[in-house]
Amino acid sequence: MLREAIYHRPKNNFAYAYTKEELHLYVRTKKGDAKEVQLIHGDPYHFEKKSGWQYEKAPMRLSGTDALYDYWFTSLKPPFRRLRYGFELTDGNETIIYGEKGFRDEPTSEDMGFYFAFPFLNGIDVFSPPEWVKDTVWYQIFPERFGNGDASLNPKGTVPWRSEEPKVDNFFGGDFEGINEHLDYLVELGITGIYMTPIFKAYSNHKYDTIDYYEIDPQFGDKDTFKRLVDTCHEKGIRVMLDAVFNHSGYYFPAFQDVLENGENSIYQDWFHTREFPLQEKPYPNYDTFAFEKSMPKLNTENPEVKDYLLGVARYWVEEFNIDGWRLDVANEVDHQFWREFRSVVKAAKEDTYILGEIWHDSMPWLLGDQFDAVMNYPFTEASLNYFARGKMNAREFSDELTKVLHMYPDNVNEVQFNLLGSHDTPRILTESKEDKEKVKQLFLFQLSFIGTPCIYYGDEIAMTGEHDPGCRKCMIWDEEDQDREMFSFVQKLIQLRKNIPAFGNHGDFRVLHADPDENTLIYKKSDATTTLLFILNPTESSQSIPLPQAYQGQKGTDLWSGETLDPSASCTLEPYQFQIIQY
């Protein structure tokens, strides 16, 4: 066995408390190397005079494989909530023991320091995201483009709805009343959570350049209108999540204006990251910003006054308006200590508030239970688009990426990961799919049957198109004759299946059973204690006969989509871009 490839660490995604009693443990080996892995485990204080430390062995199962590695998993409940452990790995020719100090030929009962340690399972350390998120289907709304319900609020220069293409600086008059008028549409679709991009007073149409964090932007309405919107959402079973832009303010944020006017004599000088005076915007700002955007000066969240101000904002909108979540913009560029205090403040105001970070890369440092509940799952997004929409990845490569995605974080993080296919920052999925709606259907099928909490970007369910920002921010289409109602019904049915069949959604174990790199077909399984579902997908331009996994050949099942009983078979024949879901 290649010992350099064998890896474990007694924390993070390799060893963690799943509940107050249960531990999850993983070890990584070179792909195809180990044939069997067992966990050697025992209580660190259980000794016998003659035989030394007392341990047991428990088999580990192969939980996934990617291009380079195999991942092995087991769970157990230590009777005294503490554990010493190592791994026994066999390839058929040799057996080795792996522990914190390296490798041995056989287990030791004398050198306790050789083994890994999980000193004690403290309940307060268990990662506990809000339970309701696991069963939520989100819908992202860009308020300026969703619905114009009160024309009296229109900003100066507002153009008629859908009268022109979106631009970086045009306004169509979207507002809270426009959202409120269409909540029944969201209920009909099956949505149980809405995520709104920023709603606070700002200069732009996207509102990521905040002027006042305590005020609603007047083009959207006022606080009474917003309170009514939140209350109505809750009455209809819809949670509400707001967008917090705490990495940076807007150019017209009063504190920044004071620094522009008074320079180093400003009492707000240390609210920002200024390098020299006077402040200059060209060729690049001489103050830190989001990217190099002069209108978005970076806030100094280490400054106690800034911290008090922003934490007050976080508390205010939860306590006063009963919102259910915060999505945190550019979360990876804000210091960790701020987010730790943010979590304490928000959870004290409302314990089951969902805290979601916008991070596009490996986010383990933010997901240790002291900062965020989840992040926007862009690794999932990219893998899904590359396989189903762009054709840049074959089935085996896709399966490898899914293994990486599912092993990046603990299971209790994956269960609330924010799984999106598109957003206000990306081209729309129909555009990514070269306007092939069958590809979009497969994307929706996979998204809504994967582990995590899915989010639909407004209008994707009726097949709207749009290139990258600003093209992806078109006005919502409300004339039914211009909507793709067949796509709407398709997504609606998937959401109902996710709600009605626990194994379909977030309560089923996920496993890829077949990923053919040549034919490019895919079979994955979702299962719980009572139900097994096979998802068989043909995302290709040719008819395919796809062999069923041997364990399911000859078994009778039900076509979950049509409701028909299926005769036992050894394979499934699918037309181009078609799928079958078999329930056993």
Task: Characterize the structure shown.
This protein is 22% helix and 23% strand. The mean pLDDT is 97. By secondary structure, the protein is an alpha+beta fold. The strands form 7 sheets. An 8-stranded parallel β-sheet has the order 20-19-18-17-14-13-22-21. Strands 3, 6, 9, 10, 11 and 12 form a 6-stranded antiparallel β-sheet that branches. The two termini are 38 Å apart. A hairpin with a 6-residue loop joins strand 23 and strand 24 (522-527).
Number of helices: 12
Tell me how many strands there are.
30
Strand neighbour order, sheet with most strands: 20-19-18-17-14-13-22-21
Give the biggest sheet: 8 strands, parallel
Describe the structure using short key phrases.
single chain; 584 residues; alpha+beta; 8-stranded parallel beta sheet
Question: Can I get a quick summary?
Answer:
The chain is α+β, with helices and mostly antiparallel strands and 584 residues long.
What topology emerges from the helices and strands here?
Layout: E1 15-17, E2 23-30, E3 36-42, E4 47-48, E5 52-53, E6 56-59, E7 61-65, E8 69-76, E9 83-90, E10 95-99, E11 102-104, E12 116-118, E13 138-141, H1 176-180, H2 183-189, E14 193-196, E15 200-202, E16 210-216, H3 223-235, E17 239-244, H4 254-262, H5 304-321, E18 325-328, H6 336-349, E19 354-357, E20 374-375, H7 378-389, H8 395-407, H9 411-414, E21 418-420, H10 429-432, H11 437-448, E22 453-457, H12 485-500, E23 509-515, E24 522-527, E25 532-537, E26 544-547, E27 557-559, E28 565-566, E29 571-574, E30 579-583
Helix pairs in contact: 5-6, 7-8, 7-11, 11-12
